[in-house]
């Protein structure tokens, strides 16, 4: 696996927004649905997803930058527990000291086949069996990745629901909608892909999330936008009105003389974020006139028009 910064084509100091933009561009270009007969595109798509899993997560990105995890998100090996070291001296913390072995082998090089052949004999160099009886090389090929889509509603995203998903090949799994998921985002489900044999490592399932359109709300990241009807009397006098949210209607107070198009922010009434908090609901008012003729309102409107005409406004 290549360096995730190289995969996404961004510098090490890239912002979160630049990383997300680079990933979306690659995902759109190499998505399996658009490149069904292109094996290389499928590999690039999987590679981009793995890279974004690391760089798109602040914690994992920091671990990678510190060298604690590799380009696949796996902890970097620091040694084998239980070895006492070489040259009569024990290794630090009981762990196998790769650097010490490299020096004692007479080379200043890095960790490679030479070290493992020093441990396990020439069988490793020849590709034979290791000390546990398993082959060090030439094992069954890893299974292929599979692609699937999951369509969800905004309510399901808001409630982080557990859904049943049928993967290619007839396998059914339960999937919990993750916090901070976005429309078009692809999630890697490790080990849920195809297997090339009984002892082979299974591939992964690449699950693309599709958020269905909603009649009331529009998602903008973790925030939601909605238009709320404002009765004329409440627009003039102010007062509480009922505002719909994904988890039920709530009360919101509007000030007197509120015009159409004014937007109010309801904290925490949006979608879940990765850090456990929630986005906001941005409610924009739309004044609603009475359905039937209102003589008092009509007379008031005429008086206002006359006054405006008289002032030359």
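-> sequence recovered:
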């Amino acid at each position: 696996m290549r360096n995730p910064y190289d995969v996404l084509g961004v510098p090490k100091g890239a912002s979160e927004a630049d990383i997300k933009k680079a990933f979306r561009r690659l995902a759109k270009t190499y998505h399996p649905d658009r490149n069904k007969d292109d094996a290389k595109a499928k590999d690039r798509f999987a590679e981009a997803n793995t890279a974004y899993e690391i760089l798109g997560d602040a914690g994992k990105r920091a671990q990678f930058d510190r060298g604690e995890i590799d380009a696949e998100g796996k902890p970097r090996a620091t040694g084998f527990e239980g070895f006492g070291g070489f040259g009569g001296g024990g290794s630090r913390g009981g762990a196998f000291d790769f650097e010490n072995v490299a020096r004692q082998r007479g080379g200043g090089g890095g960790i490679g086949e030479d070290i493992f052949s020093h441990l396990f004999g020439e069988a490793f160099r020849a590709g034979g069996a290791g000390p546990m009886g398993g082959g060090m090389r030439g094992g069954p090929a890893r299974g292929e990745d599979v692609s699937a889509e999951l369509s969800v509603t905004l309510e399901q995203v808001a409630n982080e629901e557990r859904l049943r998903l049928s993967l290619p090949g007839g396998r059914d799994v339960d999937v919990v909608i993750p916090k901070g998921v976005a429309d078009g985002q692809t999630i890697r489900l490790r080990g849920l892909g195809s297997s090339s044999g009984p002892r082979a490592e299974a591939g992964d399932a690449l699950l693309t999330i599709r958020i269905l359109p909603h009649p009331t709300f529009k998602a903008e990241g973790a925030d939601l936008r909605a238009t709320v009807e404002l009765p004329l009397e409440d627009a003039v006098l102010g007062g509480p009105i009922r505002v719909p949210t994904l988890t039920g209607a709530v009360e919101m107070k509007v000030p007197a003389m509120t015009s159409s198009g004014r937007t109010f922010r309801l904290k925490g009434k949006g979608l879940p974020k990765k850090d456990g908090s929630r986005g906001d609901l941005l409610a924009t008012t739309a004044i609603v006139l009475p359905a039937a003729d209102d003589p008092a309102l009509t007379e008031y409107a005429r008086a206002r028009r006359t006054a405006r005409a008289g002032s030359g406004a």
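The longest helix spans residues 39-55.
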